Amino acid sequence: MTEKSTGLDARIGVDLGTLRLDAALTVAPRRTLAVLGPNGAGKTTLLRALAGLVPLRHGQITLDGTVLDEPASGRYVPPERRDAGYVFQDYLLFPHLSAVDNVAFGPRVRHRTRRGPARAAALEWLARLGLAEFAHLRPAALSGGQAQRVALARALAPGPGMLLLDEPLSALDAGTRLEVRAEIRALLPTLDVPVVMVTHDPVDALTLADEVAVLEGGRVVQRGEPAEVITRPRTPYVARLAGLNLYPGTAANGTVTLGPTAGGDPRTAGAGGGGGLPGAPVHGALRVAPNAPPGAVLVALRPAEVGVHLREPPPETRVNVLTGPVVSVEALGDQVRVLVASTPAVRAEIPAARLGLLRLVRGTPVWLTVHEDALDVYPSDGATM
Amino acid sequence: MTLGRPARQVAGSTPPVPAAVTGGVEPELPRRGDGAGRGRRGSRGARREVRVRAPWPLAVPAALATVFLLLPLVALIIRAPWEALPDLLSDPSTRHALWLSVRTATVTTVLCVLFGVPLAWALARGSFPGRGLLRALVTIPLVLPPVVGGVSLLLVLGRRGLVGNRLDDWFGVTIPFTTNAVIIAQTFVALPFLVLSVEGALSAADRRFEDAAATLGASRATAFFRVTLPMVAPAVAAGAVLSWARALGEFGATITFAGNFPKTTQTMPLSVYLAMETDPDAAVALSLVLLVVSIVVLVALRGHWWDARRTQRLA
Predict the structure, then answer these.
(1) Is the pTM of this model over 0.90?
(2) Residue B166: is it exposed, middle or buried by C-beta count within 10 angstroms (0-12/13-18/19+)?
């Protein structure tokens, strides 16, 4: 390990079938990067490339100053010499070995540790994760949460230089997921290594990660601190995860003219916005706060900030009024999501009790009020990568 | 289950069998009974109403087929010279044949595992041109008449054979008509059983377990021996049992390539054939021994098959 550059630094270029992965990421030791993205975005391929299970086509992977893969120089360190702790989505615990022997496997083959000490160390790991009493069980006899923890212990036992987690919680039921998430959350800061976790669950990203990178179509389309990514989405995918309306447009003089922007990300510009009608182009204009940055921007709107009325409300100076028919009504606990085909289309959220008053059905004409302070306007070319 | 019933009836309707017989075969029968009983109890409790009687166009041929398969074995038991059995089996030539058979079949099985598992791995995992063709070629000994196999072996390893003449000229090694020839003939016919059994399991095994082993620091060889091989162990065992049984029963290739010399190449099947001409009672006695061995193999194999299926499900 060299002093000057510790942690993981990678530019991952892989072509695999229709997937063209080209993603850069940097993770310092003791930091967790969540790679958030839809299915098929290349998340697992990214992890496999880091682990050496898929060789790079172009780019470079450097861990603690050591180049692990660099097609340009012909350097490629095979997975067994990479020190990557990998927790697979379905764990892949060896079915013929007990939990303790699964965990002892790494130290035994990597460090040639003898059976006795390797098992003792494995037992320590299992005890640390609360699994001491299940050490002798075969994976088939373990519950999902237990298997998950054994997989984690197995990945950590050889003392890896980085930890790779592939959808660590996706195979668990809701209750166990909460439990294991809390355990991983407690475990991560104690690890001295960079952690890369891929997930499609924003809750994992928000609760476990120090930084989030959004991967779509093989590219990192947004990265930043979890809170920032989720409140200022840059793509319809993140907006949908965050439950926000998102509109691309051009800001000038307190007004955003919606529509594809010249400088914006094509993925953002071409889509109908996170709250819009799927596939429909974004039209119209929104009055925004005067201090909004000029130029190509994104406008995010929380559905709960939208007022829904059956009659046209009296005009107010700083309020946008939109109108259109209701497209869909969907219950979310004590709230109701109403999608309105206004210009632009808006997803509004109203209390269930108010729905009882409004009695909205598909086709009901409604008026929407959006205060300009409710619109979060930010440059669309900001931290997008 | 329907097939099991006539079998028991036939077995039950053979009163002339002396007590000694039932003693010989008994260890197997109660087990079967147990299993059937358990299954029946289960189905009776769960779905009594939906139990359908087999339609006669199926039931009659099925019953006939069962009788056809089992009657010869029953005949073997009925007509066995039970009083003379101890003498016949303690005859030195019989002992030699039995010992030779067990020995050669066991060596054959070891050879099959040592060479068959790597071949199965190459067929399942290798990425070389002609892999499909090779797989087809490997199965040829399965369908080839064993006599033809014996002739082919002579052409290769015989004293005038392609390789045999070199062995003879350079090393003074002669293979045909020796115990080694018996083993080679048996390996020739038994190897495909092991290869196919293991290859199937390797193809079905999830290769990502090897990925997992690699990320934990295992080289490809280590991953194979520590992860893949243990996971397909039931298939290796099943293939080994099949190979052993096939080697034990080998006749055509052995008699062609190794001849029929007492103590060195006269295995059990050969001595049964020989005895049929001189001493039919001895032939029946020897056959009975082979039948018992077959049943033991069957029992062993069923256990392994069950294991193999279970392992696959877990994986």
Answers:
(1) no
(2) exposed
